[in-house]
Amino acid sequence: MKNTITKWVLGHKVTLHDTSGDYDLAFGETPAGVPGPPPHVHTSLKESFLITEGEMQFMVSGEVKVVKAGETVDLPENTVHTFSNVSDRPCKWVNIHSPKGFRRFFENVGIEAHVENAQAKSVSESIINEVIMTASNYDMQIKT
Fold it and tell me: DSSP for the chain?
């Protein structure tokens, strides 16, 4: 069995799974009403989401759409995107980044799931500032 790491990242519970391939694999859980990261692009990474439970609102290149359980979102490089759970139910999802490397963002800015008030701490002003200041280290260009 592979090792997993679970952290709260910007209000989302993210469990990272080891892979042997050139991609990062994460399972996410987003509580109801939780906003996503600021709109951003990855210049060298491709990203995909598979919603497994509930629904998530995505903004992709200016278009807003609700993605429901069983549906996917595919994000080629240089695609402006963000997501949030605007529903009143939790949402669960699978996230893939390719090639491998974005996992470091989750590892470095996330708060260990076992820490008291980890979700609240993951959206603290200091974490938000760290994300803004270090985003480019993870091939994440924030768009305002």
Answer: ---EEEEEETTEEEEEE--SSSSEEEEEEE-TT---PPSEE-SS-EEEEEEEESEEEEEETTEEEEEETT-EEEE-TT--EEEE--SSS-EEEEEEEESS-THHHHHHH-EETTSTTHHHHTTSHHHHHHHHHHGGGGT-EE--
